[in-house]
Structures
1.
Amino acid sequence: MFLKRKEVVCRRKRGHMAELLNILVAVLVVSMISFVGALILFFNVKRIEKRLFPLVSFAAGAMIAVALLDLIPEAAEHAGDIPIFMYVLGGVIIFFIVEKLLYWYHCHDGMCEGHHHGAHPAGIKPFAYLNLVGDGIHNLLDGAIVAISFMVDTGLGIATTIAVIFHEIPQEIGDFSVLIYSGLTRAKALFYNFLSALMALVGALLAFSFTEMFEAAEPMMLAFAAGGFLYISLADLIPELHHDQQFPKSMLQLVWFGIGVLIIYVISVQFGVAHG
C-alpha cells in the first residue's frame, strides 16, 4: 500500500515537472520575441531616424488597441464585482505621477524646457521608463496567462503561447522604436526591452507557484497595465507626433497608427478565445 502511494506521488511530481518544463520553454520563446526589435539594427542610424515617427505612430495605435481590445476586456471578463475602470484610472494616475517625478528628478535644475528630445541632461525621455514599466507588467501577465493555460491543458497552453507570440511581435517592434526615440542607444534599447520581456518568466513562475492568489489579482493587474498603456500612448506618443506638421508625413503617421490598431484587432479576433 505504501509503495503504491509512493508511486502515485512520484507520478504527480513527474507530471508537475513536465508541466513546469513546458511552461518555461513556452515563456522563454515568448521572451525571445523581444529580439524582433533587432531587425531594426540592420538599418543605419539615418534610416532609423527616418523611420522612427512611423514606428512611434504604429506603437501608439498598437498600445491603445492592446489596452482597449485586449487588456480591459480580459480584465472585465474575470472581474466579477471588481470596479475595473477604477484600476484603469489608477494606472493612468500612477503613471502620470511617476512621469512627473521623473521629469522633476531630471529637470529640477532648470535645464529642461518642455517635452523635447534631449531636453534633460541624460538625453533620455521619461516615457522610456514608463514604457518599460508598462511593458514589464504586460509581459508578467502574459507569462502568467501562458502558465495557467498549460496547467489547465497542454493544448490550450500551446494555443495561448501562439496567441501571445503573434500579439508580442507588433508590440515589441513598437516598444523598441519608442525606446530608441526616447534617447536610448540601440544596444541599450534592445537590452532593456529583453529584460522587460523576461518578466514573462517571472509571471509564469509566480502563477505556477501561487495559482489561486495570482488568478484573484489578475483582473486588477490587467486593468492597471491598460491604464499605463493608455497614458503612454495618449499623453506621450501622440503629442510627439504633432510636432511634425507636414501633410504627407502626417498622413503617413495616420496610416501607421491605423496599421497598429488593425493588427492588434485582427490578432484579438483570431486568438481571443485562446488568449482568454
2.
Amino acid sequence: MFPQRILAVLSLAATSVSAIDLRFFNQNNCRRDYWVACNNYNPTVCCYTPNEDYTVSAGFFAIPTQWSIVMQWWDQTGCSSGPLKATSLNYGNDHYCLGAPVSGQHWVRGLSYYFNGRKREVEAGTTGGCQRANVLHLEDGSEYDLSNLGNTSYIEV
C-alpha cells in the first residue's frame, strides 16, 4: 500500500505543475506547420497576439486529459477589453481547436482558460494579467523567443 500512496502523491504533483500551450495559427483548423504561442500557460492569464492578420484559428494544446477547463477565445488583445468570441468546455481531450467560421470573421486575438467549477471572472475575462504570445514555432521544429521584440518587429515576423 505504501508504494501506491507514493504514486498517488507523485501523480498529483505532476498534474499540479502542468500548464497548457495556447497557440495562434495563420491557417484554418490549427494546422501545425508553424504558429505563435504562449507555452506552459497558467489559468486566468490572457495570451494574445497583436497581429490580426495571423489568427485564422487558435487552440489549446498539451491539456492534461484529467482537467476540466473552460476555454475562451477573444476578439481583442486584452481578453477583457472586447467581446468574447467563443467559449467551450473541455474534458478528456489533450487539445482543442477553434477554426475560422464560415463567415470569414476569424480574428481571434486572445486566449484564456480557467478550471470548470471555479468561478473566476468569466465575464470580465482574466484575473492574472495578459501576455503577448512569446514563442514562434516553425515547421522544422525550431522555436524562437519573441518576448524581446517590439510590436512592429513582432508583426513583421
3.
Amino acid sequence: MTTAPRSAAGSVDDTLGKVYDVCVDADGFALGGNDATSYFDCDAPLPGNPEFEVRHGGARYVFADADRMAKFAANPDAFAPAFGGFCAKAVSENDVFWVNPNTYIIQDGRLLMFFNDEANINTKAMWEDSNLAWGDGSHPDGGSMEERLAEADRHWKAGPPSVKQVGGGRQPKAQA
C-alpha cells in the first residue's frame, strides 16, 4: 500500500543522504515500530510484530496482531500519524523534527507526534501550553492547540520547510 509523497523533497538525513517524506527509523519503520492502531485505543502504544506489516506512504507499519493490521490496511489514513509522523509543533512553525514515538496526543481524531529528548525539550508540553510564545516568532503571546494544528496543516500542505531537524541535531538546509 503506497501513497504519493507530499512533495519532491522531504526531510534530509545528511549522514545517509536520504530524503524522507515520513519520519522513519533506520529500518524504515514508522512510530518506532509501534502499532499505529494502538495509539487510538490503548493507554500506551503496543509494540508491533514484523510478521504483521503494511507499507504505506513510504513507511513500514507493524502491528501487534493480524486484526490490528487488517484494521489499518482498511483505512491507513485514519491511523497513520499526521504530518508524516514528524513533530506537530515543529511543523506548526514550518520546521521538521524527528519524534519520540511515545510522546503523542490524539487531537481531532488525528495522531500527532512530538519531539521529546526526555531531558530538556518536550514539544508536546509546549503544544499544550497556550501561553507559550511560538519558536518562530509568529505568535509571541502563544496560541491554542487548535491554532497550532491549523498552522501545521497550512505549512504541511505548502510543502517542505527550509530547515530540517534530523536525529536530534539542527541542520539548516537550502531548498533545491
4.
Amino acid sequence: MSENADENDAGLFGRPMKVGGFGAACDRERRGLVLSKADICDPTLQYFRVSEPHNRNNPRGICLLINQRDFDREKTGQERRDGTDVDADAIERTFVKLGYSVNRATNLTLRKMQMLLSNVSCQDHSHFDSFVCVVLSHGSDGIIYASDGYLPADNLISFFRGDRCPSLVGKPKMFFIQACRGSAFDRGVCLASDAGADDVLVCKLPAEADILVANSTVPGYFAWRNSNTGSWFIQELCTVLSADAASSSEHFDILTLLAVVSRKVALLYESNTGQPGSHGMKQMVSVSSTLTRRAFLTG
C-alpha cells in the first residue's frame, strides 16, 4: 500500500471481549431544575444563548478530544491509525479559535476512557454555553474502540444526557465521531447532469434533548482516513468551521454548516487505495440531532 494511501477506521477482525467497566461516581440531582425562562423554557426562542467574549480565560465550553492512534492488537485486532494526529491537531486549532477549552487525551484504555467521560460529565458546566466531544478511533456497528477494548457509541453520549449532567441541560451537546460503523463500501452512483429574562419557573426537558451527533459515515459503512493528510470528515469539518469563524458577514448554525461538510465529503472525495476492491469508494456523513434551537459556534 502506498504511504499516501487512504485507509479506513473499521473493526476488521470482529468484536473483542469487553475489557472492564466503569460506573459514574458523582452525585447528581434528579429533581426539576430552576431555569431562566428566556434561556430555556420559552418555546418561541430560536437560538441558544451565546455569551461574549470568549478566550482562554472565559471559554465557550469544553471540547473533549479523544484521539485513539495505537491499539492492543491481541485484545482489539486493530491496526495503528496513521494520520489521526493530523486530525487531532486540526480539531485542537479549530476549537481553540472558536473559544473552547480543549481537553486532549490520546490512546486511552477502556477504563480510562470511561473515567474521563464520567469526570468531564461531573464537572460544573453552568458557566459554559455548550459542550463538544470529538472522538477519533476505529469502530464498527454501534461501537467505538479504546486501546484495549470497546464501548457502545450510545454509552459515550449517555454520560452527557440531561439526567446525568444537569449543568448542561438546555445547552447544545455536540459529538463529532470519526470511526467506521460497519464493513460495507459505498461505491457511489453515477449521475448524468443537466445543463422575558427575569422570569423563573421550574422547567422540565427530555433527558435526550439538545444532543447533536455527527458521524463520519452512515451505519454499516467504512469511514476513510489518509495516512498523511487525515480523515475526509474531520479535515472538511475543520475547514468549514474555520471559514465560518473567519467570515466578516453572516455566520451559520451548526446544522447548516454540517450540511456543507456532508456535501463536500460526498462530492469531492473518493478512496485512493490502489486495490481493486476498495479503490474509488465514497463516504456519506450522518447527522442526528435533538437540538431544540439553532446553535452557533461563532457569536
